[in-house]
Amino acid sequence: MKISEVFTSIQGEGILVGTPSLFVRTSGCNLRCVWCDTPYTSWAPEGEETNLGPLIHRLRVGTAHIKHLVITGGEPMMQHDIAVFTKNVRTIRKHITIETAGTLF
């Protein structure tokens, strides 16, 4: 997966507002929205291709106390290994939220 950044914060949107969360921000987007709040993941995607093994290990060990994972972007559904990633995350019992524009399936 091409990842722009991984960080912890408090979810600020939706029904899980206030929940401690781990954010995985993917890089790359099929849209060019003028209001985009993360143009560095869309207009000129920044980030590195990340091996899933170390990322899953970080979720399993380094952030075991955080039960909510937000996969955001960019557009997470552009990542060729998003299904493999989420399947692995489910095995470590994380609640997953994927923030997507919904234009790709």
Protein described:
The chain has 105 residues and is of the alpha/beta class. It has a single domain, classed as Alpha-Beta Barrel (TIM Barrel), CATH 3.20.20. The protein has 2 helices and 5 strands; from the N terminus they run βββαβαβ. It has helices at residues 52-62, 82-91; strands at residues 2-10, 20-26, 48-49, 68-72, 95-98. Strands 3-1-2-4-5 form a 5-stranded mixed sheet, covered by helices on one side. Strand 4, helix 2 and strand 5 (95-98) form a beta-alpha-beta unit. The two termini are 17 Å apart.
List keywords for this structure.
alpha/beta, single chain, 2 helices, 105 residues
Helix count equals 2
Span from first to last CA? 17 Å
Range of helix content: 10-25%
CATH architecture: Alpha-Beta Barrel
Number of strands: 5
The Rg value, from CA coordinates, equals 13 Å
The stretches of 5 or more residues where confidence is low (pLDDT under 50) are: none
Shape call: globular
Tell me, rounded to a whole number, the average pLDDT.
91
Which H/E pattern describes the elements? Answer: EEEHEHE
Tally the structural domains. 1
Topology-level CATH name: TIM Barrel
